[in-house]
Amino acid sequence: MSYMTDDKRAMRNVATLVVAQAILGSQITMIFVIGGLAGQMLAPNPCLATLPISLIVFGSMTTAPWLSRVMQIRGRRVGFLIGAVGGLMGGVISAYGLFIANFWVFLIGSYMTGIYMSAQGFYRFAAADTASDAFKPKAISYVMAGGLISAIIGPQIVSFMTTGNPDASHMRYFNIYVVAILLNAAGLVIFFWLDIPTPSKPTAQSGGGRSYVELLRDPKIAVAVICAMVSYALMNLVMTSTPLAVVGCGFTEADASGVVKAHVLAMFGPSFFTGHLIARFGVEKIIATGLVILAIAGVVAIQGVEIGNFYVALILLGIGWNFGFIGATTLLATAHRPEERGRVQGMNDMIVFGCVTIASLASGGLMNCSGGDVVQGWTAVNLAMVPFLVLAGGALIWLVMRPKEIA
């Protein structure tokens, strides 16, 4: 028995997921602003400053395969509750790591936060589960738009708690993790409004769907994974270094928070119309537009280190991510059968966040250890985007140019 396609149900689920994205998602924007700064104070080597961010992404990567399996068997609600508990524990352990000034305990907390981040990554897929084909891209976009609220809440909390705070030690960030704990605790009740049926058991005819190798041989799936991987990894590469670059260039934490807030608003703001653009112009054109905008962001970033350059580059980075990542998600959502959902989505997010983990690790190394000063490090971060944009662009051109299969 296939899913019931009921857009009234889908709209209720979208509303629930938007609220979850807004409330629980705020912790990610908070932690991405201060994680590298706290890491820089605690780490035994400045090259490890962004390791806390990397551990969040690594936690998301390693969680995705088993969490997608849980959701395939037990349903979305169970998986999302696991994510909220992971985020809560991450906040507790990270706060404790700050309290005892232990970098390694702080990293364990970061890994636990990655369990929440992995669950959040499945919100976009859950939005499409009960939606009609026509509503799918819009449902995905609306859920992603919920990040607008988290983009406002998270950085505002950071600004409020750091501006005027005389404590110059790592403990200036302690209360931010306390807020993350409270957000996860409040968010635990949200998912009881979710109404997504557990996927049907595989039939003898379906055989449980295609294997991982067969799935990756599907051109649409392969290109969707590559474009999602590049869009997300490059966004993370640059964003992770941004607070370090902004503060390193003589600006304040509030300035860094403002830049990140503008960036996250740009990540999610276009989501109100990205789905409509995909429906009108086609998913491949929207992904291509996203890749071009990411390239322009890099060009703006290396033109200078005035606060205006940071704002414009990070806003463009957010818009490029939105088009590239939502487009890739939509392409993937149309390329598999219901019984393959858990396998495809878990594989996709494991690959995507595996590359994002590498990008966030590289970000700190490029920023702090690849040049003689902050400007050289920031330039290296942005130049590192080039080969990956070429890879994604080439894959997309190959998909568009290959002969269409006759049904």
Descriptors:
407 residues, mainly alpha, 18 helices, disordered N terminus
Which geometry do the CA atoms define?
globular
Radius of gyration using CA atoms only: 20 Å
Biggest beta-sheet profile: none
Work out the helicity level: over 70%
Give the termini separation: 24 Å
Could you give the order of the helices and strands?
HHHHHHHHHHHHHHHHHH
Low-confidence stretches: 1-5
Number of helices: 18
Please indicate the percent range of residues in DSSP E strands (runs of 2 or more). under 5%
The averaged pLDDT comes out at 87
Strand-pairing-aware structural class? mainly alpha
Number of strands: 0
Task: List the topology elements.
Layout: H1 7-23, H2 26-42, H3 51-74, H4 76-99, H5 103-121, H6 123-129, H7 136-145, H8 147-162, H9 174-187, H10 212-217, H11 219-248, H12 253-268, H13 271-281, H14 283-301, H15 307-333, H16 341-369, H17 374-383, H18 386-401
Helix pairs in contact: 1-6, 1-7, 1-8, 2-8, 2-9, 2-11, 3-4, 3-5, 3-16, 4-5, 4-9, 6-7, 7-13, 7-15, 8-12, 11-12, 11-14, 11-15, 11-16, 11-17, 11-18, 12-15, 13-14, 13-15, 14-15, 14-18, 16-17
Descriptive account of the structure:
- It contains 18 helices and no strands.
- The chain has 407 residues and is an all-alpha fold.
- It starts with 6 loop residues before the first helix and ends in a 6-residue tail after the last helix.
- The radius of gyration is 20 Å and the shape is globular.
- The longest helix is centred in the middle third of the chain and has 30 residues, at 219-248.
